[in-house]
């Protein structure tokens, strides 16, 4: 049986986790070697997850937590719980360690194999993006809407890629081709950093296109739900409906996904 949602409790838990780290931001030395980097990263992940679990335990006593991407669940190779939290703790933790903006607390509740509720909190701007399936998307209390741009010259596109490019020549080639196609199609192309926040920004109309080659579903799900509930187009890199097994993601303001596909086709003719 699904747990009734107490939305204010969930949002408050995410805020508390983010503000915990906000008070410590830029107070630790930037790590200068892999050992220090790994130690600080593990500390962030464990403290963030403990904070979220602690504040949500009373309202979700039987809901399990998954802190990693499980492709076998998505592919149906392993039975998934009917409801579970999927948490990557701090998205953009590298930026946090480097004393840079662009880090968030991300959380998504998955029900019946689909993202059902998501929250992304940016403590530096005090903006909390959230959405519930079939319930719309919001930043704090303001409804989100994507942009209505059609002029490619002023369209802002961002791209991401998964880890392991050096070990996967095929993926590296796909990423390189995708970035080239973005540069050929849109006037402004950037790599910004935190996956979830960028996807939420597409839903908010601050960014127009998000593109990624390589499967990264754990980072995608919170922002994907927010962008979709706001009204953005959510497809794969080749324009097909997005699904859990997909190894690419294209999220755009309405109509821009089709525009991008048409540009790619034209470039090959």
Automatic annotation (TrEMBL):
CDD domains: IMPase_like
Domain of life: Bacteria
Gene3D superfamilies: 3.40.190.80, Fructose-1,6-Bisphosphatase, subunit A, domain 1
SUPFAM superfamilies named among the record's database cross-references: Carbohydrate phosphatase
Keywords from the UniProt entry: Plasmid
InterPro entries (UniProt xref): Inositol_monophosphatase-like (IPR000760)
Record's protein name: Inositol monophosphatase family protein
């Amino acid at each position: 049986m699904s747990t009734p949602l107490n939305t204010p409790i969930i949002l408050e838990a995410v805020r508390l986790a983010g503000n915990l780290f906000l008070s410590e931001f830029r107070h630790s030395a930037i790590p200068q070697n892999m050992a220090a980097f790994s130690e600080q990263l593990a500390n962030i992940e464990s403290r963030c997850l403990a904070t979220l679990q602690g504040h949500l335990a009373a309202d979700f006593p039987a809901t399990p937590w998954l802190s990693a991407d499980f492709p076998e669940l998505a592919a149906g190779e392993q039975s998934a719980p009917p409801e579970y939290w999927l948490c990557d703790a701090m998205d953009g933790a590298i930026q946090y360690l480097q004393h840079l903006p662009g880090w968030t607390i991300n959380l998504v509740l998955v029900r019946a194999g689909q993202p059902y509720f998501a929250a992304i909190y940016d403590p530096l701007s005090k903006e909390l993006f959230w959405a519930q399936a079939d319930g719309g998307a919001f930043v704090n209390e303001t409804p989100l809407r994507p942009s209505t741009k059609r002029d490619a010259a002023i369209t802002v596109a961002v791209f991401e890629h998964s880890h392991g490019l050096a070990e996967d020549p095929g993926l590296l080639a796909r990423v390189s081709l995708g970035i080239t196609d973005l540069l050929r199609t849109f006037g402004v192309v950037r790599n910004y950093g935190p996956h979830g926040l960028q996807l939420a920004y597409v839903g908010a109309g601050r960014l127009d296109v998000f593109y990624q080659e390589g499967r990264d579903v754990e980072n995608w799900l919170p922002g994907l739900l927010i962008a979709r509930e706001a009204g953005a187009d959510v497809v794969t890199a080749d324009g097909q409906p997005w699904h859990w097994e997909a190894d690419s993601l294209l999220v755009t303001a309405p109509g821009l996904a089709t525009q991008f596909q048409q540009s790619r086709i034209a470039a090959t003719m």
